[in-house]
Write a structure and sequence with these properties.
By secondary structure, the protein is an alpha/beta fold. It is built from 20 helices and eight strands. The strands form two sheets. Strands 5-6-7-4-8 form a five-stranded parallel beta sheet, sandwiched between helices. A three-stranded mixed beta sheet has the order 1-2-3, with helices on one face. The chain is globular, with a radius of gyration of 26 Å. Bound molecules: adenosine-5'-diphosphate (ADP) and magnesium ion.
Length: 447
């Protein structure tokens, strides 16, 4: 019966809440009107009791199991909820899609065009995604979406898939991450099913691969991806790709693949601005209001969050979720004070200033040199140039003075730092590779 009850609960509480709160519950005992569940943490149990206790009880009752009390115990065997691996394990609310056999990742029901807030930073990406979803003749292929973490790439891709499935259910739309692509491929190799793999991937009408930077440096996967890509483009099938950076900036990716990826439409999602963040919060708040009836949200709280949490939308959403959960738990109005208390850690890390050391690390990683060499005395050009780049970025991105920067570069004199900064300023006028490097590093650091 718990199985049936769970089915019912999906409808009652919504798929998202179900996956977060109900799915991890393990019914360990059911007798004498008491249903006992194993939960990962005490908080978890409290939360479920408070928010879903009535639902669970009434569903158990209507399934013919009279229950008047729910108990929650932190289970020895129950691990904390881990993110579900797509396509594996228990499959609760997975909507039926026409192509059950396609090895795609499940789509998040919340990621639709309706819930995507459009603003200056993402309007181009949004328009391009809409165009692809509308179907019709393939105008640009692939659509390549890129941008920093949490700016809505995955959301847009899912939105395209939802929309296509609604408009044209006969289309075979396959969405998966590059990591899953690799996983499937390696599995096919191991099981000697490569032909099957090839056929399957070549049989889709729309292929969407998320986070394609993942295949950099993975040679055989790249190769297979390239062939799949070409076969689909030749057959005039639409491809949508996302990555955290532009095609040309993905390291360890073959040039022929880079140029293939560039030959459609490449659009980037820019970091959010205040208006967009506020718009997103306002939209999400409507949802939370319906989930947590009766909670009062004071004026200015959303503005405060939009102003202070600038890193990425996921963090912004997380803050809102936590705020509502917390306020409902303690039964208080959501005020600025409450927000400041409850979100202290997020606010702190959002305020966090970039350190010279972080810059040095990123630069060393980017140029593939050792951090100790970057700071040390070596004069080799292959090290000296990255060092100057790091000096330049330290000057640009932190409020530190030249002598302070000098100290962090192994006690160099401030004139040496100044020389390094000038050198880079001068070179970037003519050296486009250097200019690209700087742009990328800036984005990675400020992301
Ligand atoms: P990415 O794939 O670029 O890392 P996601 O698409 O996973 O980012 O977005 C992170 C979270 O932020 C998701 O919950 C998504 O719904 C939300 N989000 C991002 N941009 C928007 C937007 N413009 N409107 C509404 N929600 C957004
Ligand atoms: Mg993503």
């Amino acid at each position: 019966t718990w199985g049936q009850v769970r089915e019912e609960l999906i409808k009652r509480v919504g798929k998202h809440n179900y996956a977060t709160w109900i799915e991890p519950l393990k019914l360990s005992q059911l007798k004498n009107g008491v249903a006992r569940f194993e939960v990962p943490t005490i908080f978890f149990g409290d939360w479920v009791q408070r928010n879903y206790g009535d639902h669970i009880r009434s569903q158990l009752n209507s399934a013919g199991t009279p229950v008047d009390r729910l108990e929650f115990a932190v289970g020895a065997g129950s691990a904390p909820a881990t993110p579900r691996v797509a396509g594996q394990g228990s499959q609760p609310a997975r909507p039926r899609v026409p192509d059950e056999e396609l090895p795609g990742a499940p789509l998040d029901a919340r990621f639709t065009f309706d819930t995507f807030v459009v603003g200056k930073p993402n309007e181009l990406a949004h328009a391009a995604a809409r165009r692809v979803a509308e179907g019709g003749p393939v105008t640009f292929n692939p659509l390549f979406l890129y941008g920093g973490v949490g700016l809505g790439k995955t959301h847009l891709m899912h939105a395209i898939a939802h929309d296509l499935q609604a408009r044209r259910p006969e289309l075979r739309v396959l969405y998966l991450s590059a990591e899953q692509f690799m996983y499937r491929f390696v599995q096919a190799l191991r099981d000697r099913q490569v032909m099957g793999f090839k056929e399957l991937f070549r049989s889709v009408d729309v292929l969407m691969v998320d986070d394609v930077q993942f295949i950099s440096g993975k040679d055989s996967t790249q190769e297979e991806f390239f062939h799949t890509f070409n076969a689909l483009v030749d057959a005039n099938k639409q491809i949508v790709i996302s990555a955290d950076r532009a095609p040309g900036e993905i390291k360890d990716l073959e040039d022929r693949i880079k140029s293939r990826l560039q030959c459609g439409l490449v659009v980037d999602l820019h970091p959010t601005d205040y208006e967009l963040r506020l718009g997103i919060l306002q939209q999400k708040v409507d949802y939370y209001r319906s989930q947590y009836r009766g909670l009062v949200l004071a004026d200015g709280v959303l503005e405060f969050l939009a102003h202070r949490i600038t890193t990425n939308v996921r963090v912004l959403e997380g803050a809102l979720t936590r705020l509502f959960a917390f306020a409902s738990l303690v039964g208080r109005e959501i005020t600025l004070d409450l927000a400041q208390d409850c979100l202290a850690d997020i606010l702190r890390s959002s305020d966090r200033k970039l350190t010279i050391e972080e810059i040095q690390r990123k630069v060393a990683e980017h140029y593939n040199v050792r951090l100790s060499d970057l700071i040390g005395p070596k004069r080799l050009r292959t090290i000296a140039r990255p060092r100057q780049v790091a000096m330049y970025l330290a000057k640009q991105l932190t409020p530190r003075s030249l002598p302070e920067i000098g100290r962090r570069f192994g006690g160099r004199d401030h004139t040496t730092i100044m020389h390094g900064v000038r050198k880079i300023e001068e070179l970037m006028q003519t050296d486009s590779q250097l200019a690209d490097d700087l742009q990328l590093l800036r984005r990675l650091l400020q992301g």
